[in-house]
Amino acid sequence: MKSPFGTIAAGLLCLAIALPGFAQTTKHTVQTANEAQIAHGEYLVKGIAGCGDCHTPMNDKGEPMPGQWLKGSKLSFGPLVPFPGWAAASPDIAGLNGWSRKNAIRLLMTGMDASGQRPRPPMPQYRMNYTDAAAVVAYLK
Fold it and tell me: 0.85 cut: is pTM over it?
């Protein structure tokens, strides 16, 4: 009859060998998810929402000014008729200084900031799902 202690010892040895590899795999998976989230946020900011069109200063050729990506800008367009609350400039959103992650996600999901105010036009009142809003915030942060 075999001793159960030999089987237990063999199982523990296998577990001890496998655990370091498991920890590395888990860490890599989390890191990849963050990279994927940031890449998704970049795609949304640059390709879908077009944030740079208003939040980046442009040169006289209409090209983004180097080193000024999403740093805020005077808007080069306006309404054809008076429009209450129209913003003449866009804020600096690079790094989301002054914004908590939670409040920035809330703005993108509900169209309202932490105080319950809506962004001034022409800023769209986005209604993103949580995944997209969190990805945009991860990219901007």
Answer: no
Dihedral (Cα; 132, 133, 134, 140), 10-degree rounding: 110
Question: Could you give the CA distance from residue 76 to residue 65 in angstroms, rounded to a whole number?
Answer: 14
Q: Is the dihedral of CA 126, 130, 131, 134 positive or negative?
A: positive
pLDDT digits over 32-91, tens only? 559 999 999 999 999 999 999 999 999 999 999 999 999 999 998 999 999 999 999 999
Whether residue 22 contacts residue 16, with contact meaning beta carbons closer than 8 Å, is answered with no
Cα–chain-centroid distance for residue 25? 24
Q: How far is CA 86 from CA 62, 76, 92, 126, 141, in A?
A: 22, 13, 17, 17, 26
The answer to whether 128 and 108 have CB atoms below 8 angstroms apart is yes
Give the 3-state secondary structure of residue 14.
Answer: helix
